[in-house]
């Protein structure tokens, strides 16, 4: 198979972990006889430094002429505490999501049998946890207008908006996913306070008859924030809007014991983007200590979702599982006998 | 001491648990020679049923002529899935907060030594957890205008707004609390995306020099949702806006193992309101099984914060601790040998 992959490794530990994912993809190419053209492009703080733009037009063009995107992370501390910064790395991420139509972020949450002991949660709570969150990614308060400051600078405002169509397209994906899983869909909202949440509840309720085999229920976001920790095994598919999804998916990531293990997919009209969920992790940058497994599993998701290469994707997952079982892990997962980022990447590539 | 307390027991299990708190307050009156005039008033779904209004003007008057408010819960399932309901119980709660100027919700989170085993978190993570969340309560997306539906009903919008003054008044309370505690204040926001969050960060940063003994740091809300579960013992005082506070405080409540144990205070310009955090819990209503400890500890907070009756407040806390240690508990905390709501209330009143 010949395909083009855009490689956007971004900021912080992004380049280090993405390099391992690329290494593993190359191993897959060799073993299974594929040929993937990989094109690197800039995004985030490094793109600002080089071009003044966090998501330059050249990068957008590389993405649009690719079949899938492998993404690292963006973000740099120098922008976080500067309320007046005109350009921020995050704008690049948001613009990319919007311009590429990546309206659904899909995040699987499952516990690794061999790593149950690392979770802050008790093992009996997280055994068998296996759910997936569908987060709407290009609407809501992240994009709503107007937003900004009053003239005197003494007040600020953001707007949250949703249309029926924006809700339907991501909800269809979530319903379909539930049909292929345990047939339970939970809509997380704040319908007792927000007008947008009431629209979500109405639209999703109206769609439910199209998916008669899926059981639909509703949960207020505050309650969901508790239930995800109290009874994570109760969830199957969770559907929610952009901001709630941001919070809930990161919260849910603690279940597995390490952020470094988790991958996510962002999809929409065609093109899919795959990224580890850990972010740019500035403290670890350049130290060759970051966990590359999230990035490597993102590559596995890419092969499965965008290229339909199920066997190849499973080969990556199996290699990761073996490395985990052997304890061949970075310091977040194995303090006593830690391997470096590149060692873990080499090992997993070798196991393909 | 002579004081007036407004009793707003509300919906669901509200009346059952509030009755136990009143019982304990009466025991305090007897033992310590105080006399509190208690006036009941309607709020929530029962107020809608009786008057058409979730926070009737008579109730507002009772509150305004009282020295403190003991509150139960509001909410009824018949309103939750009806996106078109014109009046909702929650509106009563929001209107009360707004009209009484209750701009700060204060929620202590601590682990009960005797109940560590009930938490979904591992004991080593929650040992010694002791933090308090200051949630802004009368601003943000809960109240911002405009909000509603487009004319064709196919889109919806909410507005999040904050002014400098709204941020300052709650931030002052949080800084002061930090001064009396471990001197660490964490502002939770989403300043990498939201204009309102950038105003929060700016205003709080500008206030920091007034509290030179307090160490201020910042955390994005998605990261905070992880850290609160991963490393809850790291927090001292957390300050955040309304919606993030709603989510974060409920999430944090799982640490103690039971929602039923937690109390909260809402304060502002003068009057304080005290409530258990568990909500109306419709499934348990009328069964005499709800845990009254959250309501009873709310009464303890009332005596301490509004009446400065420290000894009396401590007497309640000591009685609760003794009941907990003896395992004299409702079924959420003691499945094998569960006591009823009234039995636990009687016991704690007796121990005063
Ligand atoms: C970096 C930030 C803008 C982003 C978001 O909030 O969407 C990140 O937290 C994420 O979840 O991908
Ligand atoms: C009932 C609801 C409107 C309320 C809120 O979101 O503020 C509740 O969840 C709370 O936290 O007191």
Automatic annotation (TrEMBL), chains A, B:
Record's subcellular location: Cytoplasm
Annotated gene: leuB
Xref: InterPro entries: IsoCit/isopropylmalate_DH_CS (IPR019818), IsoPropMal-DH-like_dom (IPR024084), Isopropylmalate_DH (IPR004429)
Any one GO molecular function term: 3-isopropylmalate dehydrogenase activity
Name of this chain's protein: 3-isopropylmalate dehydrogenase
Pathway(s) this gene product operates in, as recorded in its UniProt entry: Amino-acid biosynthesis; L-leucine biosynthesis; L-leucine from 3-methyl-2-oxobutanoate: step 3/4
Binding positions for substrate per the UniProt entry: 97, 107, 135, 222
Cofactor note: Binds 1 Mg(2+) or Mn(2+) ion per subunit.
Catalytic activities: (2R,3S)-3-isopropylmalate + NAD(+) = 4-methyl-2-oxopentanoate + CO2 + NADH
Limits of the Isopropylmalate dehydrogenase-like domain: 4-348
Reported function: Catalyzes the oxidation of 3-carboxy-2-hydroxy-4-methylpentanoate (3-isopropylmalate) to 3-carboxy-4-methyl-2-oxopentanoate. The product decarboxylates to 4-methyl-2 oxopentanoate.
């Amino acid at each position: 198979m010949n395909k083009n992959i855009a490689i956007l490794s971004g900021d912080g530990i992004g380049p280090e972990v993405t390099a391992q994912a690329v290494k593993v993809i190359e191993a897959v190419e060799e073993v299974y006889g594929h040929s993937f053209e990989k094109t690197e492009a800039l995004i985030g703080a490094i793109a600002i430094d080089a071009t003044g733009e966090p998501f330059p037009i050249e990068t957008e063009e590389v993405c649009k002429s690719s079949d899938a995107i492998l993404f690292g992370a963006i973000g740099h501390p120098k922008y976080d505490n500067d309320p007046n910064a005109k350009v921020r790395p995050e704008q690049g991420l948001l613009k990319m999501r919007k311009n590429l139509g990546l309206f659904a972020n899909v995040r699987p949450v499952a516990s690794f049998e061999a790593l149950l002991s690392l979770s802050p949660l008790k093992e009996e709570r997280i055994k068998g946890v296996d759910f997936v969150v569908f987060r709407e990614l290009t609407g809501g308060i992240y994009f709503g207008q107007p937003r900004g400051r009053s003239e005197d600078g003494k007040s600020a405002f953001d707007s949250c908006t949703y249309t029926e169509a924006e809700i339907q397209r991501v909800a269809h994906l979530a319903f379909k996913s539930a049909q292929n899983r345990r047939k339970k869909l939970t809509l997380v909202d704040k319908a007792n306070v927000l007008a947008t949440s009431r629209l979500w509840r109405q639209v999703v309720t109206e769609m439910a008859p199209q998916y008669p085999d899926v059981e639909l229920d509703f949960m207020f976001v505050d309650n969901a924030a508790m239930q995800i920790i109290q009874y994570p095994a109760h969830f199957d598919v969770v559907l929610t809007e952009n901001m709630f999804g941001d919070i809930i998916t990161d919260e849910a990531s603690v279940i597995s014991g390490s952020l470094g293990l988790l991958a996510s997919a962002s999809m929409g009209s065609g093109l899919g983007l795959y990224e580890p969920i850990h972010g740019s992790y500035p403290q670890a940058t350049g130290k060759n200590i970051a966990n590359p497994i999230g990035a490597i599993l993102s590559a596995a998701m890419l092969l499965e979702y965008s290229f339909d290469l199920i066997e190849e994707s499973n080969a990556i997952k199996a290699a990761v599982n073996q490395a985990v079982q052997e304890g061949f892990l970075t310091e977040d997962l194995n303090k006593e006998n830690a391997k470096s980022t590149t060692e873990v990447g080499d090992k997993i590539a070798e196991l393909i």
